Each structure stands twice: as structure tokens, then as C-alpha cells.
């Protein structure tokens, strides 16, 4: 079966604000599934990034209408101008809601898996955030551990009924955490608001050594969230994490949350990550967006992701040591020597964490993205919390 069988074509002219698109507008550049499906096989022609819409909102809790978001976002994105780089973006069209919601999940899983295998990065425009589960299961056949970053005001899990919970936009994390086979290495929840999250859920994250960052920790210092996003293989962005005054197009919008420019910066961090191989933007509902402001913001977030993608430094620590500055420090009890590296290309930091119980000559390590503050903490003789959590998961 060809991937084209999962999609319905689009009409790009419906997205133009004028008679036609200008030369450097995305509408002129994108290889769209209009007259023919984008070529995904030819190495010289296939897109680097593939846009795809999912017209599914049956499990989007109290946000019916989110299925209309893909084309609403395209109306803004197609009129944006590319940056100072050559882009290869394909628009595959829309996955329509299946006869059952499971059919939709299977279609999205299959598409994500095939695109990632072909080194094409899917940018998913939902639809409900329950589609994150289908995005995640797309990695099941890739034989790798997966790190997930979720930008959301809440933790979308049912703490009281962990197992046998129906899958929807408020419980999809239950299904990711309990999914078998288990290939989840880490889950990060960014921009959560404490009064919207139970203490039991936060305690569960701590017990599982997952990562969290509340919105207050990000205010005025958004770069604190960058390492968590840089560590992720896939990113899921709930538009409800953005405050209602900036993004009213969501039935569950909150008075507090991220500002629009902060949401764009987080999307750019994801684009710049060498590791990120898929991203989804979910829960935008055009029904609550008569002026199109939220659709325009989502389009700009995707633009920032694309801009970050074409600004990648390819400096994850697997290349020659000459590309890095290496720092070593010993803790107060001298149990461990902690090793940090800083990229000369981007000034970004990583921390070396050994696999649990590994004391052999050929000791294996995991490079975890970190902050300069983690290095400062180690210099002060204290173990960074990020080191300990990562070490516990490397069993």
C-alpha cells in the first residue's frame, strides 16, 4: 500500500490570499498533494519535511471542531515567506477520520513510521492531542528508545484509573506509559500549570524519573526548557498551553499560559534539535477562532520549527572531540567524575551519564542535553538532578 492511499488531496488555491502566491511564499515552494502525490522515493527530490493534516477530533475532550484545523492553518502557512535557505517541504494532504477512531490511529502510525524510516520529518496538524499516541506508536517498529516532550498546561493522564482507561485527549499519556512493548525512555512535560495538575500525578512523574518544568520556571528564561526539547525524539504541542488572549482557538483555553512568541521559540528549539524526528500541533479549533489569530500563530510556530530545522548544527556528541570543549569535575564524595561537553558550533551543553552498573573498560555512556547551570552545580560539588534521573533509567 502506498502512503498516498491514506491521504485526500488539497487545493492550494484555497489558501492563497491573492490571485497567486509570490515566488518565495511557501505556497509557491511546497510540493503539495494536489495534482499528484509528492515524490518520497527519489533522494534528490523527496522533501526534508512533510506536512500532514489529521481530520480527527472524536476523542478531543470538549473541543469538537478541532478536525477542521489542518486547512485553517494552511491558509496562513502557505502565505508565509521562506527564510534565507532552500527548503524542501511536501504537503501530503489530510488523513480523514476513519470508520472508527482506531482506523485513524493506525493510519497515522503507519505514515509516521514510514516517513521517519525515510528520514522525512512529519509535521502533524491535528486534530485532538490523543493523536500523540498514534504519533508515538509510529516509532514501535524502529527499534529505538524514544524520548517524548509534551508542551501542555496539564498532565494528560488519569491518575485514579491508570489501567483500562479509554484513550482520549485527557488520558493518552496513560496509554503511552503502559504501552507494550515498552520503548519509552523519557517523558517531559513542559509549561504545565501547578493548579491544573494533581500532586499524585507529579509524584508519579518523579517515581518514574520523568522530567517536568512548570510555566513559572520558564517565565523570562525560556532557554531553561531547551535541553528537555533537544533530548526528545518527538514533540507534541497542545495549543491550550498558550494563554487564551494569545490563542483563543481552543474550547479549553486558559487565561494563563505561554505567550505567542514563547510558543514560537519552543517550536524553533524543537526544529534545531538534531534528534527531533516528528512534531505534532494539536487541539487548535477554528470554531473558536473567527478572526484567525490562533491559526496564524500555529502557522508561525510551524515556520519557526522549519527555520530551526534548517539551522541545525549537527553537533550531537558523536563526532570528533575537536568540535567540543570538554569539562571534568568531581563531586564532594568523589564517587563520580562528571564529564560535560560544550559544542563549539552552538555553545550547547551535554552531560555524560554511564549506563547503570557499567564499570568495564568499555564503559557505555549516554549523552544527555543539559544546561550550563547543571555544570555549575557539579562544580559546586553537588550531583545534578538530571544526571541522577538519567542514570536510574539506564538500567
TrEMBL record:
SUPFAM superfamilies: Arginase/deacetylase (SSF52768). Coiled coil: none annotated. Keywords: Hydrolase, Metal-binding. CDD domains: Formimidoylglutamase. InterPro entries: Ureohydrolase, Ureohydrolase_dom_sf. Gene3D superfamilies: Ureohydrolase domain. Belongs to the arginase family. This is Formimidoylglutamase.
Amino acid at each position: 500500500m502506498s502512503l498516498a492511499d491514506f491521504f485526500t488531496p488539497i487545493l492550494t488555491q484555497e489558501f492563497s490570499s491573492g490571485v497567486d502566491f509570490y515566488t518565495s511564499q511557501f505556497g509557491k515552494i511546497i510540493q503539495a498533494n494536489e495534482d499528484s502525490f509528492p515524490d518520497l522515493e527519489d533522494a534528490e527530490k523527496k522533501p526534508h519535511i512533510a506536512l500532514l493534516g489529521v481530520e480527527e477530533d472524536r476523542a478531543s475532550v470538549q473541543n469538537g471542531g478541532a478536525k477542521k484545523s489542518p486547512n485553517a492553518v494552511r491558509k496562513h502557512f502557505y502565505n508565509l515567506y521562506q527564510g534565507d535557505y532552500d527548503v524542501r517541504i511536501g504537503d501530503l494532504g489530510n488523513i480523514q477520520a476513519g470508520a472508527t477512531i482506531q482506523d485513524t490511529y493506525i493510519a497515522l502510525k503507519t505514515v509516521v513510521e514510514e516517513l521517519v524510516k525515510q528520514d522525512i520529518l512529519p509535521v502533524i496538524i491535528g486534530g485532538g492531542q490523543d493523536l500523540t499516541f498514534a504519533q508515538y506508536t509510529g516509532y514501535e517498529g524502529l527499534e529505538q528508545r524514544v524520548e517524548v516532550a509534551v508542551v501542555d498546561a496539564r498532565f494528560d493522564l488519569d491518575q485514579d484509573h491508570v489501567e483500562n482507561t479509554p484513550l482520549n485527549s485527557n488520558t493518552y499519556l496513560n496509554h503511552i506509559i503502559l504501552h507494550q512493548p515498552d520503548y519509552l525512555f523519557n517523558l517531559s512535560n513542559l509549561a504545565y500549570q501547578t493548579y491544573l495538575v494533581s500532586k499524585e500525578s507529579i509524584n508519579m512523574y518523579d517515581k518514574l524519573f520523568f522530567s517536568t518544568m512548570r510555566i513559572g520556571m520558564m517565565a523570562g528564561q525560556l532557554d531553561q526548557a531547551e535541553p528537555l526539547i533537544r533530548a526528545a525524539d518527538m514533540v507534541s504541542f497542545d495549543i491550550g498551553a498558550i494563554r487564551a488572549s494569545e490563542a483563543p482557538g481552543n474550547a479549553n483555553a486558559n487565561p494563563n499560559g505561554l505567550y505567542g512568541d514563547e510558543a514560537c521559540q519552543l517550536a524553533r528549539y524543537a526544529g534545531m534539535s538534531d534528534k527531533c524526528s516528528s512534531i505534532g500541533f494539536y487541539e487548535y479549533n477554528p470554531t473558536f477562532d473567527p478572526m484567525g489569530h490562533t491559526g496564524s500563530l500555529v502557522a508561525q510556530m510551524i515556520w519557526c520549527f522549519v527555520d530551526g530545522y534548517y539551522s541545525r548544527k549537527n553537533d550531537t556528541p558523536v563526532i570528533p572531540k575537536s568540535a567540543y570543549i570538554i569539562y571534568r569535575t568531581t563531586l564532594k564524595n568523589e564517587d563520580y567524575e562528571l564529564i560535560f561537553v560544550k559544542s563549539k558550533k552552538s555553545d550547547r551543553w551535554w552531560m555524560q551519564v554511564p549506563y547503570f552498573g557499567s564499570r568495564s573498560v568499555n564503559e557505555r555512556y549516554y549523552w544527555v542535553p543539559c544546561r550550563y547551570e547543571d555544570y555549575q552545580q557539579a562544580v559546586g560539588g553537588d550531583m545534578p538532578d538530571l544526571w541522577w534521573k538519567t542514570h536510574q533509567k539506564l538500567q
